[in-house]
Amino acid sequence: MSKLYFSFFLVLIVSQAIAQKYKVAGIIKDEEGKGIGGVLVRESGTSSSATTNQYGIYEMRVHYGNATLIVTADGYYKVTRDINGIGTQNFILSSVSKARQKGIVGSRNLNATEADLSSPVDVIDVKKIASLNGQFDLPQLLQYVSGSFNSNRQLGADGTDLIDAASIHGMGPDQMLVLVNGKRRHQSSLINLSGTRGRGNNGFDFSTIPVSSIDRVEILRDGAVAQYGSDAVSGVINIVLKDHTDGFSANANAGIRMAKYNRDSSSWDGLNYNGNINYGTKIAKSGFFNVTADYNFQDHTNRADTQTDSILRRKFGDPKIYNGSLSYNTVIPVYKNTGIYSFGTASYRQGETYSWTRGARDSTNFIKLYPNGFDPLVSRVVDDRSITLGARTAWNGFNINLSHTYGFNKFSYDVKNTLNKSFGMDTTRSSYEAGGFQTSQNVTNLDVTTFYKDILDGVHLAFGAEYRMDSYKINVGNPLSWRTYNPLKFGGAQGFKGYGETEAIDQKRNNAAGYVDIEAKFDESLSVNAAGRFDYYSDLGSAVSGKAGLRYKITDALSIRGAYGLGFRAPSLAQQHYSYDILIPSKANLEYPQSNVITRSGSEISKALAAPDLKMETTHNGSAGIVFAPDNNFSVSVDGYYVRVQDRVILTGPIDSNDKQVGALLKRLNVAQVRFFTNALTTSTAGVDLSLKYTADLGTGKLNTILSANYNTMSIDTIKTNERLANKQANYLDKRERYFILASAPPMKINLTLDYIAGPLTFMVRGTYFDEIQLINRNFGGIDKSGKAYTEKDYIDIYKSMIQADASLSLKVNEKISFTIGGSNLLNAYPTMSKPGRTESGGAWDSVQAGNNGSFFFTRIFYKF
Question: Which part of the chain is the TonB-dependent receptor-like beta-barrel domain (predicted)?
Fold first, then answer.
C-alpha cells in the first residue's frame, strides 16, 4: 500500500512539473518607459500568477505554450495577450487617467469586457458596418444589425417623422437610457403624439450624432437603473466616439430609392447624399484630438395611395431633410496620472413634411386663394448641442473622474402653403412661425473606482454622486398660427396649429443621486456584482433602486449569467407640463369655440377630472442566459429577459363633453374633448435574445457571420383609472391604442449578416426578417354604409411578415482609397396595403418597423489623406 501511495505521489509531482514546464518572463512599463511594481500577471483558466517587483520585472511558469496572460494593475487598463510559445513577454500599460475611452457599458470596472458581465451586451463596430451598408443615419443602421433594437421610421407625423421612435425590446423610447462616452445624453424635446410609436413618450434623437463620428455602439440588453439612474429600464445604449489619430479621411455617399408606389409616376425618388470628413491627431504621448464634420441631405419620397379618387393625402412619404453636424472627442494629458477630456456634438436639422390634403371645397379653404385645394407643408427645425468637460486622475489607489455635461434640444415649427380661415382671406402671406419647445440638461458627475486585489480573487468598488438640472419650455408662435379670430371658423394654421399663449410654460427641476457598485471575483469561475442607488427629485420625491447579478464559468468555454433589479423611471418634464389646444368652431348660438385639448398636470381641467399629478414608474427586471465561446472564432449566447412596469405613463384617449360622468364639467370649461398624461398601465415584457458570431477561413479569404435574433412578447396587465373616471378604461386606452403599444416591436426579428473578405474585395449580404404585426384602423368603433357596426375583419389590419435583403461589394484600391456599391431591400418589399381612410397617417399603410419606401441603391467613396 505504501508503494501505491508513493507511486501516486510521484505521478502527481511529475504531472505538475510537466504541466508547468513553460517559463515566461518580462518587464512591464508605463507609457513613459518606467517599470511598474505590483502588477499582477496571471494565466487565464489556471491558478498560475506572478507579481512584478519594484522595477516591473516578473517571472512565472505557465501550463501551456499557447497560454493567455492577463495583466492588471491599479490605475491602468487591463491587457490580455496570447504568448504563442514565446517566453519573453513585455508590456506597456496605459494609464486610466490619460488613455482613450475604455471599459464597457454595464460595468464601472474599467478593465471589463462583455465576457465579464452578468448581463448581455452587444458591441457593434459602427466604423465597419457603416462602410458596407446603405443606412446613412444611426437608428436605421442599428435597426438592421441588432435583433433587440427597434427604430420605427414614421411617415406623415407632425414631428416624429424627423426623429425615429427607437427602443429596446419594444418598450417605450423613454424607457431606454443613452450615453455618449459613458455620460448621460439629453432627451429630445419632442413628445410623440397621435398615431406614432411611443405615443406619449419623448425619447432620444440619435440623428443628432453623425455616424461618421462613431467608433462603436454598446447595447446593454438589461435594466440598469441602479447603475445609471432613471430611464435605464429596458437597457442602455453607449455611443463611443472615434479617437483615432491617423490624420484626415473623408467619405462621399449617395443613394436613391426605387418608387414602386408613387402618385407622381416617377420611377425613382428620395435622393439621399452624405459627405463627411474626419481628422485625428495625437496630443503628447497618450492624448488625442478627433473631429468630424458631416452633412446629409434626404429628399422627399411620395408613397401616397395611387387611387385617383383618394385625395386624403396627395403627398405622403419621407420628409425632405437637411442635416449638418459637428462632433469632437479629445483627451489631453496633464501630468503623469492626470488628464482632462472633452467631447461634444452640434447638429442643425431642417425637415419638411406634407400634411393632409385640403380639398378645394373644404371648410378650411378659401377657394379663391387655393382653387385646387392645398397641401400644407410643415417645416421643422431641430437645434441640438451637447458638450462634456471632465478630468481624471489616479490617487492613492483610487481612480477619480469629475465631469460636467450640458445638453440642449430645441424643436421649432413653421407652416407653409397654409392659411388661417378665421382671420379671413390673406393674400399677403401663406406661412407662419408656429412656435415649438425646448429642453436642456446640466449633469455633474463624480465617479470613483478602486480595486482590492487581496480580497477574495479581486474586488472592484465604485461609488459616486450625480447632480442634474433639467428644464422644459414651450415657445409661442406667430398669433396667426394659433389664434382664432372668428369663433365660427377654424382658427390657427391649417396643417399644424401653432403653440399659443395658454400653452406657453417654462419649468425646471433638480435631481441629486448617489450610488455604490461592487464587483467581486470569488475565484476563476464565479463573479458577482451588486449596485444600489438613491435618487431625489425636487418635484417627485425620492427613489431607491438596486441590482444584483452573477456569472459562473462552468468550463473555459461555457458560462451562465443572470441578474435581477428593482428600478424606476421619472416622468419627463414634457410629460408633466406639455399642453396643446385645438379650437373647434362653435355652433352659431355659442359665443366661443370649444377646445380639443391635451391638458397638463395641475391645470384647471385636470383638477376638474381629479387627474392626479404624475409620479414615478416602478420596475422589476430580470435576465438569465448561457454563453458558449470555445475559441476566439466562435461564440453564441442565449438570454431570456422579463420586465414589469407599474404606473406606466400614457397619454389617454379622448374624453368628450357628451360623457355622462364628466361631460357637464367639461362643458362648463368650454371643452369639447380632453386628453391628459397619467400613470395608468401595468405592462409585462418578456422574450429571448440569440446572438452568434463565427469567423472561418474560406478559400483565399475569411468569412464572418453574425446572427442577432429576438423573440418578444408584451402584455397590458391592468389599466388604472381615478375615482371620477371610474370604469373609463376604454377611454384611457382604447383597443386601437393597445394594439399600437403591443406592436412596438415585431414578435420576432432576425438579422443575419455574412461578409466575405478576400484580398482587396469585401462582399456583404444580409437578411432581416420582421414578423407579422396587427394594428387597428380607423374603422374601429364605426359603422359601414348600411349602418352595421364594423367587425374585426373590417378594422384589424394584418401586416404580413417581411424579409429584406441587402448586399454590397467593396473594393479597397489601396491604403487610401476604397469604393462600395450596394442596395438595401433588394426585393423591393413593402408593407401590406391598407386604405388611406383607415390608416393613422392617411397613407396606403401604417408606418411599421420593416420600412415604407422600397429598394435603395447606393454608392460610397472613402479617401484617406
Answer: 339-826
